[in-house]
Structure prediction request, 131 residues.
Amino acid sequence: MFRTAALLRKVRVTIPQLSPSHTQARIVQWLRANGDTVECYDPIFILECSPDVVTPGYRTTEDHKPLMIVETHEEGILKKIESRCDVWRNVRQVIGEIDDGDDNDVDADTEIVSEWIWQAYSHEIETDETE
Prediction:
């Protein structure tokens, strides 16, 4: 595997804050599991965001909770994920980590941890309209 950028030993995966006013979100679906290897641009979960992610004047309804698909820009093994869905969590809450598995360049007593780099896109769950 070729790395596209320098990677720290461990990266904390958190509930991303998608706007300055955004306070909470819940994971609707995990797209990866504990122990999966992830690469840059891999989608890892789908979030339902609290309505405050969008300014009130721009919401489709007052309680609109948009869905977002979140991808990682990190590479490594997804570990210690908080796999429970449908639990509302505060933004920046740690829900797992990505570990590059390379302990050769890190002293055994040193743990290098960083916040993760992510990107999110608007998402809609497809429904079967053939009924």
Q: What stands out?
A: Residues 73 and 117 are 5 Å apart (CA to CA). The chain has a mean pLDDT of 84. The chain has one domain: 10-123.
